[in-house]
Model the fold of this input.
Amino acid sequence: MSSGSDEFQIIRIADGSPTCHAALHLVFDIECPPVESVSAPQVADLLANVRLRTVSIDLLLGAYRRGELVTACLAAESPGAAALVFVPSNLESDAKYRATVATLKRLQTLAWKQSIVLLEVLVAPGRGALADVLKEAGFRYLTRLRYLMRDVTRKVQPLKAAHDLKWVEYAPERESLFQRAVEETYVQSQDCPELTGLRRTAEVLAGHRATGIFDPALWWVAGRNEKPVGVLLLNRIPRWPVLEVVYMGVAHAARGTGVADALLQRAVNAGLRIGADTLSLAVDQRNTPACRMYARWDFVEKGPRDAWIVTSPRT
Done:
């Protein structure tokens, strides 16, 4: 499948094809190893997830000019009708700039045909040329995400954690409970509120299950008086002793009652139980209450990313 202007030919690159290895390294701004069996760590991690079937690289596109690969972009689709888009940030030439814009536009057309509704790009701050490419390709700036981490062995100071909660572990027959609980936590949320309603809650949970290594014993709904008041979803990170908070939320009516501290306490305890040494998460920098809470819990920032999105016409 190909498309493009007279200058560029945009082609879908098949997984395992002779060009795939070079294109994936180009996406990550990494010099391609001469041997196809050798991959840079970022590419190796991506391919490991492909083998686990938690992500797909079917939407890998390359832009060619006179037979030469100028640029490549990837929409790494995972369950949940969303895809994380990887775009080269090394846009030193005008040709590569234009080719990347054209490739991202073509990528959107293909994504919407595959029922994807959300494409997201995470950009290191200060990448001005890449931001310009994204704007020209139709993406819009969402927010800056703060990536935080905490040593799980660090002692917790006395906190006002709620002790009246009933914890319910995930099971397939409790899917509707988890969906309802997540929806309760979305009410007046300050964490990327623009994303609320873009996807069905079932799709959101499917996406969370595909992040890292899903273990139902690490997913909980916290209840009070027979009502869900909090959600904690933890996944292991492959090959690292890290436990990621893929989602944590408190129902609007229960905020300020110690539920959030109870959720974090459970997360730390879970990390200790499974032998993780680090708890990691991402938070919208606009979510001031959450940022203050994580500071109280001695989380430290390991680097921000700017989130850019584009959504399907269906939304």
About this structure: The helical segments are 20-27, 41-51, 94-113, 128-136, 175-186, 201-209, 259-274, 288-296.
